[in-house]
Amino acid sequence: MNRLELQDSLSINKLYNKQEREKVSIIGMVVKKETTKNSNILITIEDFTGTINILVNKNKNIYNVAKDIVLDEVIGITGVFGKSIVFVDEIYFPDIPNKELKKIDEDVYVAFTSDIHVGLYAFQEKNFIKFLKWLNGEYGDANQKELSKKVRYLILTGDLVEGVGVYPNHEKDLVIKDIYKQYERLAELLSMVPKSINIVLCGGNHDALRIAEPQPELYKDLAKPLWDLSNVKITTNPSLVNIHSSKDFPGFNILMYHGFSIPYYSTNVDSIRLAGGLNKVDIIMKLFLQRRHLAPSHTSTLYIPSGTNEDPLLIDTVPDFFVTGHVHKVVATNYKSVSMICSGCWVTQTSYQERRGLVPESFKIILASLKTREFRILNFEE
């Protein structure tokens, strides 16, 4: 409502006091969307006062924008009032503001990775250990070893272990069939990370947590060895984490979200599906930022209401970094003031992944400089 275009927005029930062909603006939630026999797009939106149909003509420049609108998202529109309908001229999303990338003078790096899947037969532990040795300055050429000394933070965004019973006949794919021992082995590996590096991690759909979001912290009884590591901070999924703050600097906000809702939008948004679906996770992350929500459609992820008036999947605070995983892709790009990162995996393709359409981009970590906000991708493949 701070937008100039929408400052005169009306409640839906007040629209019916308007004259036909009068210009109006409204904000509402999408209830229904369909294509008419004339190929126009008819959308029903609602607010607390009622519902109304809005129509996007197929000849309008915004037609392709309207095609990508998903159920349950909140949009603003301006248009012309008709008889119990609004003919749309423009569509507005909540979106994030334009700002400069936040930077610092120190030459400090953050390493991002996810989807380790400890316990799965396809987990390539030897490659992961190469990464850990690099963090200790024991792997790579001279320049790479020098770079490792500048890493102060390691962000792990879910699917830390493979879990047990995630899908039918899962046990056939496991080399560690005990969930306690999976977390024990993960803790042994992460204990190799230098104590000068702060590790922040959250769970994912393969971890020993409820699948419904928001997911809580890893349970202390199941993952006690991780909780015992002095340089590990365990958080929820999703979560907003602040790093590198001081009395003179507010720090960087990192929005961590494992990404369970991502596949829904890869198939249900026309432009994303046609562009490559799961191979275009950066477009999906951009959609989340534009909609200011991690799962704008109610059915796109399993969800448990928080019991408060706050929606934990809402992107309220605009982050400096938005990092996700789940689909095993490597992406590092910027959208406005936000660095968007999808942080790869440490597994080779399994038959289960193949059935889900996942082609993993493995053994890569993404480094982000807090000084320049530039990315580097390091490959730990043999």
Keywords:
382 residues, alpha/beta, 6-stranded mixed sheet, 5-stranded mixed barrel, 10 helices, 26% strand, elongated
Characterize the largest beta sheet: strand count, sense, and whether it forms a barrel.
6 strands, mixed
CA gyration radius, whole angstroms: 23 Å
Shape: elongated
| Average predicted confidence as pLDDT | 94
- Helix tally equals 10
Distance between the termini: 53 Å
Strands ordered across the widest β-sheet: 9-8-7-6-15-16
Structural class: alpha/beta
Taken in chain order, the helices and strands follow as HEEEHEEEHHEHEHEEEHHHEEEHEE
Q: Tell me the fraction of residues in β-strands, as a range.
A: 25-35%
As a percent range, the share of helical residues equals 10-25%
Sequence stretches where pLDDT stays below 50 over 5 or more residues: none
Tally of DSSP β-strands: 16
Account of the 3D structure:
By secondary structure, this protein is of the alpha/beta class. It has a 6-stranded mixed sheet with strand order 9-8-7-6-15-16, with no helix packed on it. Strands 1-2-3-5-4 form a 5-stranded mixed barrel. It has a 5-stranded mixed sheet with strand order 10-11-12-14-13, with helices on one face. The mean pLDDT is 94. Helix content is 19%, strand content 26%.
